[in-house]
Design goal:
This protein is mainly alpha-helical. The chain has one domain. The chain is 94% helix and 0% strand. The chain starts with a helix and ends with a helix. It contains one helix and no strands.
Amino acid sequence: MLSVKRICTKLKSQWTTLNMTKISQIKLMSLSVKKIKSESSFGKEEYNRSNEFK
Protein backbone atom coordinates (compact mmCIF):
# COMPACT_ATOMS: atom_id res chain seq x y z
CA MET A 1 0.00 0.00 0.00
CA LEU A 2 2.82 2.35 0.86
CA SER A 3 4.66 1.61 -2.39
CA VAL A 4 1.57 2.50 -4.46
CA LYS A 5 1.31 5.83 -2.66
CA ARG A 6 5.01 6.46 -3.28
CA ILE A 7 4.60 5.68 -6.99
CA CYS A 8 1.61 8.03 -7.18
CA THR A 9 3.51 10.89 -5.58
CA LYS A 10 6.46 10.19 -7.87
CA LEU A 11 4.18 10.31 -10.93
CA LYS A 12 2.52 13.46 -9.64
CA SER A 13 5.86 15.22 -9.21
CA GLN A 14 6.97 14.12 -12.68
CA TRP A 15 3.66 15.37 -14.12
CA THR A 16 4.02 18.77 -12.48
CA THR A 17 7.60 19.14 -13.75
CA LEU A 18 6.42 18.12 -17.21
CA ASN A 19 3.65 20.71 -17.09
CA MET A 20 6.09 23.35 -15.90
CA THR A 21 8.49 22.64 -18.76
CA LYS A 22 5.58 22.70 -21.22
CA ILE A 23 4.40 26.05 -19.86
CA SER A 24 7.89 27.50 -20.05
CA GLN A 25 8.30 26.21 -23.62
CA ILE A 26 4.97 27.79 -24.61
CA LYS A 27 6.04 31.09 -23.01
CA LEU A 28 9.35 30.96 -24.88
CA MET A 29 7.54 30.18 -28.14
CA SER A 30 5.12 33.09 -27.72
CA LEU A 31 8.03 35.39 -26.89
CA SER A 32 9.95 34.30 -29.99
CA VAL A 33 6.83 34.74 -32.14
CA LYS A 34 6.40 38.28 -30.79
CA LYS A 35 10.07 38.95 -31.53
CA ILE A 36 9.74 37.61 -35.07
CA LYS A 37 6.60 39.68 -35.67
CA SER A 38 8.22 42.88 -34.44
CA GLU A 39 11.34 42.17 -36.51
CA SER A 40 9.30 41.46 -39.63
CA SER A 41 7.26 44.66 -39.23
CA PHE A 42 10.51 46.59 -38.70
CA GLY A 43 11.92 44.95 -41.83
CA LYS A 44 8.84 46.01 -43.81
CA GLU A 45 9.24 49.60 -42.65
CA GLU A 46 12.89 49.57 -43.70
CA TYR A 47 11.94 48.06 -47.06
CA ASN A 48 9.30 50.73 -47.69
CA ARG A 49 11.75 53.45 -46.73
CA SER A 50 14.39 52.10 -49.10
CA ASN A 51 11.82 52.01 -51.93
CA GLU A 52 10.86 55.64 -51.32
CA PHE A 53 14.39 56.81 -52.07
CA LYS A 54 14.48 55.14 -55.49
